[in-house]
């Protein structure tokens, strides 16, 4: 039984990224409770940025999947041409680059710590403003989710419309196999 090497590499990379995301998330949770201090500042900045990048990539990936399902219903004959391997990889690369560029400011921004009386550290903020990153982190997911709701609603409407026309065979033979792909 031959193995699909690109699929195995992709699955391995996804697993590694999931593990990195979980480690980064847990690092930031611990940092919020009891700060590690300036000696771990770079790791803390990277962990906080990776958490944001993972969240952003996830939201944009969900939007791409919604678009994929929409094209499966709306353009079933062109589905394989629209979502060919080249287009999928290009959209994934753009998604990841956009996520990293969006969070670049948080990566390079220094954290400011204040010593506690007991010898520990308290995270006191950043050396500059990350307002733009926070605004983008708030607006883009909301826009993607609203757009996804609209696209999903329209997709359901299109399926319902085809069923009302009596095109059960089209729905059964063309649309459903593409959506389940």
From TrEMBL:
It is a multi-pass membrane protein. The keyword Membrane applies. One of its GO terms (cellular component) is membrane. It comes from the Eukaryota. The chain crosses the membrane at residues 46-67, 88-113, 138-159. GO terms for molecular function: transmembrane signaling receptor activity. One of its GO terms (biological process) is sensory perception of chemical stimulus. Keywords: Membrane, Receptor, Transmembrane, Transmembrane helix. The keyword Transmembrane helix applies. It is found in: Membrane. It holds the Pfam family Srg. Belongs to the nematode receptor-like protein srg family. This is Serpentine receptor class gamma. It comes from Trichostrongylus colubriformis.
């Amino acid at each position: 039984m031959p193995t699909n090497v690109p699929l195995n590499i992709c699955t391995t990379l996804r697993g590694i990224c999931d593990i990195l995301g979980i480690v980064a998330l847990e690092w930031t949770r611990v940092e919020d409770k009891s700060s590690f201090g300036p000696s771990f500042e770079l790791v803390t900045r990277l962990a906080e940025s990776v958490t944001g990048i993972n969240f952003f990539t996830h939201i944009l990936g969900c939007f791409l999947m919604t678009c994929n399902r929409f094209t499966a219903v709306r353009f079933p004959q062109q589905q394989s041409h629209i979502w060919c391997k080249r287009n999928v990889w290009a959209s994934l690369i753009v998604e990841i680059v956009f996520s990293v560029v969006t969070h670049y400011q948080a990566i390079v921004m220094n954290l400011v710590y204040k010593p506690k009386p007991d010898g520990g550290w308290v995270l006191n903020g950043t050396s500059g403003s990350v307002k733009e990153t926070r605004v983008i982190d708030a607006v883009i997911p909301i826009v993607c989710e609203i757009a996804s709701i609209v696209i999903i609603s329209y997709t359901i409407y299109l399926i319902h419309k085809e069923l009302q026309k009596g095109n059960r065979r089209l729905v059964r033979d063309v649309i459903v196999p593409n959506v389940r792909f």
